[in-house]
Amino acid sequence: MPVINFSYKDLCSVIGEDVPIEELYERIPMMGAVMESTDMTSDEMSVELFPDRADLYCVEGMGRGLRAFLDIEPGMAEYDVEETDIEFTVDPSVKSVRPVFLGAAVFDVQIDDTFLRSIMEMQEKLHVTIGRKRSKVAIGIHDLDKVTPPFTYKAVGPHDIRFVPLAKTEEWDLEEILQKHEKGVGYRHLLDGKEKYPIILDANNNVLSFPPIINGTLTTVTTNTTNLLIDVTGTDYRAVKGALDIICTALAERGGSIGSVTIHDGKEDIVMPDLSSTSWEFSAKECASFLGLDISPEEQVAALRRMGLDSMCEGDTIFVESPSVRLDIMHVKDLFEDVAKGYGYEKFGQGKIDVSQTTGGLMPITNISEDLRDVMVGLGFTEVTTLTLSSDKDEFDNSGLPKLDNVRVLNPITEDHTCLRSYLMPSLMRIFRRNKHRDLPQRIFEVSDVVVDEKRRKHLCGMIMNSKVSFTEIKSYTESVLREMGMEYSIKASEYRTFVPGRGAEIVVGGKVIGCFGEVSPQVITDYEITHPVSMFEIDLVDYAESHSSALF
Q1: Residues 334 and 212 in one domain
Q2: What are the C-alpha distances in Å from 355 to residues 188, 193, 289, 294, 350?
Q3: Fewest CB atoms within 10 Å of the CB: 69, 300, 313, 407?
Q4: H or E element: which one contains 96?
């Protein structure tokens, strides 16, 4: 979880009044944070925040939150946005590279060393969290007085433009930056496969930024900077807009004046930043029931205002306005959580509320799984547990089972773990491969999850490895399981290359194939590097479970 560091005196200056440090150490955790430092005699404070509250990732956001939470200024903070003539043009060339661009300006900011460090720390915290290490969001903050509008965001060739990147003294082209600059080396994977790279230029073709890699040294922000230009690029509009709003409002907390910019993207002109709030409403009775509190609508309104939201009630209905910086509010249940925090977790359990007695129980599929484990143990099989991760080679190429659209692992660590499994059989074959030197016969089974059509399904798979196996033997085990399940079924020949021709079968229930069994073919056995004959069965339990709402036996 992100940790922010700041000065106690600096926090009080943002809050607008001196709050006893003991009170801050007591109240900040109630907002949803952990105090990293416990030394109340020190001016330095360190707070670990939950990942959902990106608006608190700086001392400015923390000060704004505490003003409301401590009832100093409850309700939503308001910020004026003044109109400017600053314009950005987004060229269509960036749509296939880094398509989302938003910007803003902030004027008359008084920057000292403490504030400058806070800006840089906030920027990096947003990069790592909602920015997913700059892959989703990258932020540039520039000295506006060093460049000339209008600005252009476009894609150019790796060798088309040269500029001096931040913290360097010589000009490099974009490819050289990716190869030589420490930030280029660290983030060049974000531009892998791209023929052109994004760049932000001013009216005189001066480079502001090479997102998401590095800014130009020309627009470096210092303690002499008073007017700022902010650019945010990325791949997700909501995250980009949220990061822009958080940056702008944090700067406004320091006395800055937010200025709008007009963005032309070829389709429509948009004006940013847009700090409009979002409207919600919910039932006070539903909220109280959800939290298990005897809390009135008026108390819920007060609690929400302590969380920096505007709120009012009419009868049982609570009306809420949430600020644009609260990216964590996506459902009324998130507002219920804010009611709990604003009301005070320390007050939970003080009142009385009616509790309805209910009886819990296992889901049908869980009942079936547990009962089938007993059946398989009774038949002489040993249970194993294997990984859900697998590979296409094991799942389909080696097994001979029908190929399905499986769930892929985006960045697999090894070639053995590239997807989620669609069958249990390959996993059990790998168990046999690792135990082929053990005594025979070996009988193993697993009741576990596979993923089919992006949904989890419960399968049962049983396998036998012995010096001799027969179709009759595995058929008898399969039919024993089906009989214990009370299932009406039929059997038809299988064409899967998994099985020896003529020694494989499919299980049909209600006209639908729910499983298969038979002698595994020598080719499949060889592909799994096994040296003994194998027979197996595998059954999909989900369709059966959905039609049986109670335990089997």
Answers
A1: no
A2: 57, 59, 10, 12, 15
A3: 407
A4: none
Paired sense of beta strands 44-49 and 33-35, if any: antiparallel
Nearest Cα residue to 141 out of 200, 95, 76: 200
Give the range of the structural domain holding residue 386, as residue numbers without chain letter. Answer: 364-546
| Kind and range of the H or E run holding 109 | none
Q: What is the mean pLDDT of residues 145-164?
A: 96
DSSP per residue, 372-436:
HHHHHHHTT-EE----SEE-HIIIIIIT-PPP--PPBPSS-SSTT-SEE-S-SHHHHHHHHHHTT
Instruction: Express each pLDDT in 95-124 by its tens digit.
Output: 999 999 999 999 999 999 988 988 999 999
Regarding whether 319 and 407 lie in a shared domain, the answer is: no
Residue identified by tokens 């729910």 is 514
Q: Cα(54)–Cα(75) distance, rounded to whole angstroms?
A: 18
The answer to whether position 359 is within a domain reads no
Q: Parallel, antiparallel, or unpaired for β 257-259 and 81-82?
A: parallel
d(CA 447, CA 459): 6
**Contact predicate 257/108, CB 8 Å:** yes
The residues facing 408 across adjacent strands are 419
CA distance 146 to 220: 9
pTM greater than 0.70: no
Q: Find tokens 């105090």 and name the residue.
A: 35
Given 272, 300, 327, the domain boundary residue is 272
Rg (CA), the chain: 31
